[in-house]
Amino acid sequence: MIKVVLLFIYLFIITPAQTNGNTITLPVEKKYRHNQVKIQKRAATHNIQLYNNEGFEYLVNIGIGTPAQNFTVSLDTGSSDLWVPSISCSEQECPYNRFDPSKSSTFSILNDTPPFYIAYGIGSVNGTFAKDNVELGDATISQQMFGMASSTQDLIFMSSSPSNGILGLGYPALTTGSVKYDPFLFRLQKEGHIEKPVFSISMGSVHNQGWAGEILLGGTNPEKYLGDIAYEPVWGNNTYWMVGGKSIQIIKETTQSEVIFNHTFASFVRCFIIDTGTSLTYMDHALADDIVRVMAGNVVLDQVSGTYIIDCGVKGDATTDYFLEFVMQKTKISVPIKDLILPLPGEEGRQGSLCMFGIAPWMTTGTSQTMSEKGWILIGDSVLRSTYLVFDMKDDQIGFAKVNTYDLFKSP
Ligand SMILES: *[C@@H]1O[C@H](CO)[C@@H](O)[C@H](O)[C@H]1NC(C)=O
Ligand SMILES: *[C@@H]1O[C@H](CO)[C@@H](O)[C@H](O)[C@H]1NC(C)=O
Ligand SMILES: *[C@@H]1O[C@H](CO)[C@@H](O)[C@H](O)[C@H]1NC(C)=O
Ligand SMILES: *[C@@H]1O[C@H](CO)[C@@H](O)[C@H](O)[C@H]1NC(C)=O
Fold first, then answer.
1. Which of 127, 107, 108, 109 is nearest to 117 (CA)?
2. From its phi and psi, is residue 12 left (phi > 0), alpha (psi between -120 and 50) or beta?
3. Number of CB atoms found within 10 A of residue 67's CB
4. What average pLDDT does the chain have?
5. Which UniProt keywords apply (predicted)?
6. 273 and 400 share a domain?
7. Which element (helix H / strand E) includes 212?
8. Which residue among 93, 151, 154, 178 has the greatest number of ligand 2 atoms within 8 angstroms of its CB, and so is best to mutate?
9. Strand ranges (DSSP E) for 11-123?
10. By residue range, what is the domain housing residue 260?
């Protein structure tokens, strides 16, 4: 078996929409259809399991076509298109399931089959758009626009549980068609298939491998969080799922808690992009350096991977806990430092062995550079695992709550 030594994923869509100030269509008011007889239209909640692939990506199973052809795809709040490999992609490039339109009775090809091309933080894909029925758990949308990939780069890896396509959960404004369209989840909401206009994500601990997480369509799951859900408004005209950040802190907790690092953003609020499709958390180089040095001493960046490689045994003992906190307007995400120390795939993660730090500087490729210059911070799985997430598609806000760790350690 081929083992990828540094497998990490970086899926936020790179789009010119960020720079040209285009107008954005807001989701229209939804009509519930409680009284209608058509069973499949009844508003409900749909609970779908999430697969934790070594902590580096989170996958769901979706079906496309009639009968459904199955794909295990990455769950990505940092982009908005759904695509899967099609039979026009070579087996070398697309070694897993490939969508065959001739085997679906509900498939429809679009007029002049508009091509699509998507560039992510790492990797790109191209192919053509089409429409067919899409199902996620027991939620189904007919004639959903999706991409059939004919070529992909750096997105499908040889792995025992490969990701074979991407399900973008972002706003319609980030879709890449020549005409913006409603992604699967936004259609579920607009067409009244879900009880509340939200979807909620609980990833589970990094150590709970396999089908340990959950995405709930249409509601929140009280078993997965503690206390109240605090909501932050979405920033930036409904493009990325992003919120306004105020500061980043490190807290040392013994018998009392002490702020040992406090980086308050100067004149303006920084955007925190909430991106389940990216493994690590990215910010400007100086800030990332400061944080890793507080936690692990004088670490240098590994130039090949663009990450900090540190001793797995660094910081934290029985009597002291450290937390990295992302402070927003009303609430904060608090991550135990030990959860930011990620064993390299195949490593034990013990003291003396090598781990990757969950915070990294923005990559220096062109488009990441743009994000970096804006001062934005991309919050990925390394941090998001520590919070329950609620994405509200109607009131344009993101809810955060403390994860229920008791539930995480319950045997499945
Ligand atoms: C696709 O997945 C569904 C639901 O998990 C399952 O019932 C069906 O048998 C699968 N189909 C194939 C062809 O694997
Ligand atoms: C799409 O993929 C094909 C095959 O690899 C390639 O020749 C073409 O340049 C790609 N198109 C874009 C826009 O990247
Ligand atoms: C949102 O749109 C307004 C009006 O077009 C623009 O002035 C503002 O800069 C946009 N905000 C962001 C974060 O793009
Ligand atoms: C962090 O620094 C800012 C600005 O210097 C200050 O206003 C704030 O009170 C500090 N927060 C803590 C918890 O020390």
1. 127
2. beta
3. 10
4. 84
5. Aspartyl protease, Disulfide bond, Hydrolase, Protease, Signal, Zymogen
6. yes
7. strand 210-217
8. 151
9. 46-53, 57-64, 69-76, 82-85, 108-109, 115-119
10. 226-409
Regarding whether 371 and 257 lie in a shared domain, the answer is: yes
Q: Identify the residue whose tokens are 């954005």.
A: 24
Q: Is residue 2 part of a domain?
A: no
Band (pLDDT 50/70/90 cuts) for residue 122 is confident
Where does a domain end: 217, 237, 257? 217
Residues 61 and 194 in one domain: yes
Which of 217, 243, 266 is the last residue in one of the domains? Answer: 217
Judge if 397 and 303 occupy the same domain.
yes
**Assigned token pair, 116:** 């699509």
Ligand 3 pocket: which of 235, 237, 241 to mutate (most atoms within 8 A of CB): 237
Buried b (16+ CB within 10 A) or exposed e, 70-84: ebbbbbbbbbbbbbb
> Total structural domains in the chain?
2
CATH of the domain at 398: 2.40.70.10
Residues 164 and 53 in one domain: yes
- Structural tokens at position 390: 């609620």
- Cβ contact 13:80 at 8 Å: yes
- Separation of alpha carbons 329 and 179, rounded Å: 34
Q: Name which of 75, 23, 11 is nearest 217 in CA terms.
A: 75
Are the C-beta atoms of residues 146 and 131 closer than 8 Å to each other?
yes
Residues catalogued as catalytic:
76, 275
Binding site membership of 126 for ligand 2 (Cβ less than 6 Å):
yes
The answer to pTM > 0.85 is: yes
Q: Which two tokens stand for residue 182?
A: 């409603």
Please tell me the distance between residue 314's alpha carbon and the centre of ligand 4 in angstroms: 26
- pLDDT, tens digit, for every residue of 218-249? 999 999 999 999 999 999 889 999 999 999 99
